């Protein structure tokens, strides 16, 4: 039986040429004959005609122009003719044509860098006349040539300039940026930028800066800042200066600009970033600008927003728990609350503080009922219950100190400690000329009572977070030097870290390192509090990359596991938000390396007994693997591609990692999605919250609260109610569920913990520090949050900010304008004027913005000073605006 060939046979087709194509072929052949012919007088006209035909040929975007296609067989012929030419001018003309022909593969055997070679032998004039594709081809070959031989750079100088000039004049500025970055000559771009293209170039370079090394990044930002300054876009220039930590540039803007409304907008951005700027003494409206930067009106503006949204009525913890909605008729969670009422009362204190944060009134601790509620708590629970008053009166320095003052005279040390911590929380992110926090807390940092001393020190850290005040730092350094226990030392280090975050303060760093080295042989080094102490040291270097190197060398003197844990913590802080791929690779390597504490064969036999004898508050060697896991989430923070890759890595780590590693995975996931409750993230964390390992489950539940912080997300709230039923008999897990419910409804849905602001352009390191304290504490939850140090959760106050859009006029009076709100779209490098938001809804300000959302003005009546619409925005009415019916 004959077999049937089912594969299609290749049928060779000869291309049928039209009459026009045949005429073109004949004409080209005639011109080639003249070029290689014996008459030298015909060569020049023939080359001119050939050049004309190539330049004027029309074709589709996806096919080779016909003259080039038909000239391909004569490529070698032209090269031979070029070699025999004597006339220099004619020879250069011929080289130009050969250079263009070299773009097309000749029979599959293209000679490398042939286009560039003949371009250099040609006229090297008006290379853009051959088209965009030719210029791009030449740029590619220039890059290859410079990689092979850096010495040829001088010969290519003029050609590089021509390519960049052509790109910038013909809407190819993005291509020019890529070309110059590849050959490391971005500085050449500046002379070709103009008012029409600089914004597009600066936006593109800003996005590129995330993916280059530190030196190149600084060069890019410097160029961007200079362009914005040149074209008087001072707000954008200030944002770049904040990226580079160049406060002198911002001070120059305050001196240079005479526009009062613009300076007010800049002051609001500095206030949101907690940036200390020294204003000129002769500056007009200096006091008003200082008040804005000190967040003096933050409380009043927040209350105005609350009244506008009609959410002033206080909420109780029961309003948050919504036990009646829990999906079971048995209500086992109520039974659990009766079983462990002290822990549940403690949870309610936190929930009450989180939900009513900043509103100035609540149903538990304010007024006459406050005393009764505080005494319903036990031991350190009274401290946290009293401290919750600070959250309720958050930012209200003038009115919030009076309700707290009466507890400062309590005979109970824990209640007095809670009042001191509350004083610090009230002043958090707000600076007041009277310095009430310093005046009230300074007297207690040397108190005999450890609880009072710790609360006063931490209160100072929260009150002056990000200020880098010398007088406050000096007081805290004394607290470090006088510390007698690991707990006192850790609290003082955290406070210094909060005050001097991202400053590389040498005096503070030396004080902490000196104490650490002095205690190297001390029994206190075994305490898990030493991890928090080094975390405070790391806060000094948040986002400072290589600045941590000397400190890392200093901790080499410690034995394992301290050496590995301390170095991991320092690298986590120094590279937070940088997206550094090499650091991520190093952290992945550390995750798989178990720290071996056993030095001989005999001790290996007793490994299990040693592990079982580890005390509750003793440092765990597993932290050396857990901290790099959390570091993965911190390093990739704020960069979409890095965040996506990190989530995939964490999936594998959570599946195959050691118990200590798995404990950190939910926290790392949360760091990538703070106040951003995307469904896939919620589903992953919900799975972890049912884990058989209690510590993993507790951390996953807390991570759900961080992910949904201040969003009022309905799906997440329902998930937490289900978890309350599931963990009804587990006191630790149920406590975490209640904390997460409070965080989800933070400020009744008006506050956020996200460290990213100004349309995700800036990263607030003080907010990062506020998040890292409970995150690191939860790597050993029973030693801190689930033990006697739950008050560390109040460090989140340093990261709480309203997620609002408020519009003010030039006189800082509230003005309501229509705005379009939608999901932000990345438009970097896109042609034309693409839409920057999708899923648009129109609202009237003030409005609440979710993480990842962007707003645009829906009216032409006003113009905004800031590059983005979020936070507090100053608007100016257009003088030429005319209302229409």
Automatic annotation (TrEMBL):
The keyword Transcription does not apply. It comes from the Eukaryota. Keywords: Coiled coil, Proteasome, Repeat. Residues 142-169 form a coiled coil. Component of the 19S proteasome regulatory particle complex. The 26S proteasome consists of a 20S core particle (CP) and two 19S regulatory subunits (RP). The regulatory particle is made of a lid composed of 9 subunits, a base containing 6 ATPases and few additional components including PSMD2. Interacts with RPGRIP1L. Interacts with CRY1 in a KDM8-dependent manner. Belongs to the proteasome subunit S2 family. This is 26S proteasome non-ATPase regulatory subunit 2. It comes from Nicrophorus vespilloides (Boreal carrion beetle).
